[in-house]
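Quick one: PDEase domain-containing protein from Chromera velia CCMP2878, structure tokens please.
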Amino acid sequence: MEFLSKFKVRLESDDFLQGPELEGDGKGAAEVEKQLKIDTGLLAQACIKAADIGHSAKPWDVHYKYSLSVVEEFFKQGDKEREMGLPISALCDRNAASSLAQSQRGFLLFLCRPMFVVLVSAEKVRGERLYDAAVAAKKRDSSKRRSSAFLAVGEDGDVVGPGRRGSAGRRGSAASMRSSRRTSQASALQLNFSMVENVCLRLLDDNVEEWTKRMSESQPSKEKTGS
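--- reply ---
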């Protein structure tokens, strides 16, 4: 949870994942590049941690299978701790009254879900940064094309004016096409940047709902117990 708090703080900064091409607050390029590497490292760590608990965001049959395996590992750790006279770690006591459904529901809600929620936010910020970078690149390309329209020199040394298109003009057109593709790809990403939210988080919430249902089924109602 300490890592998650640190990641959230950085994620809420205006310059999170900001590249040198978007520099606008007076920072030097070297400083911006250094911070970008730190941010990229934090994002990579978050992805690795999410992958480690990735079964929580898989379809129910896959998640349930992994849950049984993980719980048995925890129980074996608890058995070893009991043998050594050590305090038994949370979720590791096979003799505890809490049910599998209850422990797994808590695991998903309080450990797994927050990680995926913060990844959704990071994914959106990344999409915005890519879009902004593509727009900035398009503006630079447009500026270069306007300059070369007034005076361009072809590979053969001839001056190419507004009415003639030499190799410089062709290069400008190619750069424009590349820029347009980058902008289109970034726009698509920005509009469709909820993969973690629409797939992973949705499946995780489905699994929480299934565990909640099983938890209620495993607990006799007050009417049945007479209490």
